[in-house]
């Protein structure tokens, strides 16, 4: 009985030691804050704060449900950002990252687990922002034809031959451009499709016009028949 009590007491002591060690570790190695994914044209950055003083940060990342990995340039770094563009190879998958607060390079520690904080899930394909494309306008010599040339936005991605990819290489047939234009010195925008209200109004006008034409034709036919009947009634009767 006494041995069981001693064992429980030692376990309690161990738990208290671990708890206070964890609290002390959080004070020595503060957790990262404001962890944010930032991505434009598929250049995917993980950012956080504050700037470390006597400690460093290590970034671990993984696809959801898989083992975590590290990238060499984000191990025990004094920076507050990590470029993971080339690490997130499967663009449509979702990833998460952990930022560990650790000793500086060359400094050892007896801690087994360091303070860390997790990011929200992130997918390069679904969450990146696309910048505006470059374009130019070409007008024919007779001023009758205007051509709009659009250049697809380059990305931060490369193929196996190290050729830079553009957004059309990534999105394929799903990439579309919407063009809105206006006449010179005009405040109204011009687009290539009429609204439902305009189409409905035009159809109504056409129907009314056709109805009016039919009514006029019917009335003319009735008047003609009445005139013919009147002429027949005024003729003398033939002898029997």
TrEMBL record:
Domain Fibronectin type-III: 14-108
Alphabetical keyword list: Blood coagulation, Disulfide bond, Glycoprotein, Hemostasis, Lipoprotein, Membrane, Palmitate, Signal, Transmembrane, Transmembrane helix
Region forming the signal peptide: 1-26
TM region(s), chain numbering: 194-218
Entry keyword annotation includes Transferase: no
Predominant subcellular localization, coarse grouping: membrane
Top-level lineage group: Eukaryota
Membrane topology: Single-pass type I membrane protein
Any one Gene Ontology cellular component term annotated for this protein: plasma membrane
SUPFAM superfamilies for the chain: Fibronectin type III
Residue ranges constituting the Interferon/interleukin receptor domain according to the UniProt record: 128-191
GO biological-process terms attached to the record: blood coagulation
GO MF entry, a single one: cytokine receptor activity
Role of this protein: Initiates blood coagulation by forming a complex with circulating factor VII or VIIa. The [TF:VIIa] complex activates factors IX or X by specific limited proteolysis. TF plays a role in normal hemostasis by initiating the cell-surface assembly and propagation of the coagulation protease cascade.
Assembly, per entry: Interacts with HSPE; the interaction, inhibited by heparin, promotes the generation of activated factor X and activates coagulation in the presence of activated factor VII.
Recorded family membership: Belongs to the tissue factor family.
Protein name: Tissue factor
């Amino acid at each position: 009985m006494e041995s069981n009590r001693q064992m429980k007491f030692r376990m309690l002591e161990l738990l208290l030691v671990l708890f206070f060690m964890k609290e002390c570790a959080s004070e020595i190695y503060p957790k990262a804050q404001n962890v944010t994914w930032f991505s434009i044209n598929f250049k995917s950055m993980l950012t956080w704060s504050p700037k470390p003083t006597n400690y460093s940060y290590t970034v671990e990342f993984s696809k959801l449900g898989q083992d975590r990995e590290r990238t060499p340039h984000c191990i025990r770094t004094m920076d507050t950002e990590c470029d993971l563009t080339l690490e997130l190879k499967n663009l449509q998958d979702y990833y998460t990252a952990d930022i560990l607060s650790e000793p500086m390079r060359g400094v050892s520690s007896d801690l087994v687990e360091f303070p860390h904080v997790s990011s929200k899930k992130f997918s390069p394909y679904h969450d990146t922002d696309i910048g505006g494309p470059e374009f130019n306008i070409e007008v024919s010599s007779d001023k009758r034809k205007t051509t709009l040339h659009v250049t697809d936005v380059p990305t931060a991605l490369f193929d196996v031959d190290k050729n830079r990819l553009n957004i059309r290489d990534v999105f394929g047939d799903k990439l579309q451009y919407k063009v809105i234009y206006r006449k010179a010195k005009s405040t109204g925008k011009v687009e290539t499709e009429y609204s439902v209200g305009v189409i409905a109004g035009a159809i109504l006008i056409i129907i009314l016009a056709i109805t009016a034409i039919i009514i006029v034709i019917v009335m003319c036919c009735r008047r003609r028949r009445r005139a013919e009947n009147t002429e027949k009634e005024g003729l003398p009767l033939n002898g029997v």
